[in-house]
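Open question from group meeting: does this chain pack into something compact, or does most of it stay loose? Before anyone orders reagents, we agreed to write out a predicted structure and look at it together. Recording both the input and the output here so the notebook holds the full record.
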Amino acid sequence: MDDAIKIDNRGDFGLWAIEMAKQIVSDQGFELARAARDGSEDDVRQAGNALGQAITNALLEVYDGLLEGAPEE
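Structure tokens returned:
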């Protein structure tokens, strides 16, 4: 997601997670399904890796946001 959002509570985080999951599945899930239908084993592997990377990036994005403003140790 390109827009910054403020997560103040569990409900906000839940909404963010749902929207991020929808975005990832619509982008990367389609590519994985297409590779599974039309592609080679290597195409499926690459699409699966891209899906995993998108999930990782989303988790790191929210983690980095949690650390903003946190005191350094």
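Observations to bring back to the group:
The two ends are 29 Å apart (CA to CA).
Residues 25-64 form one domain.
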